[in-house]
């Protein structure tokens, strides 16, 4: 694992490209669309989560502009933003989605996700 602020920044930028952006795209092209078609509450949550995706992306892409003094604080903010986002998805959004979607829709969603992943 990286140990200096600069190497941590580079790691976070690579993580964005390699993992977060594909993950965001997958959710936005499958889960969020189905959620929006399910209920107004889920639609609003999906809009909010997609907005958080853009904020995280913009915040991470701005890391190279941070000064050496700002970088540790900015990296900490990224970590907190990402942790909060994940908790919101897992504890609120996905729980509500599972409660509201009929079993056949959940299976349809699973198939869409697997197709997106190329499996």
TrEMBL record:
Q: What is this protein's record name?
A: Hemerythrin-like domain-containing protein
Source organism per entry reads Pontibacter korlensis
Q: Which Pfam families match?
A: Hemerythrin
Where does the Hemerythrin-like domain start and stop, copy by copy? 7-97
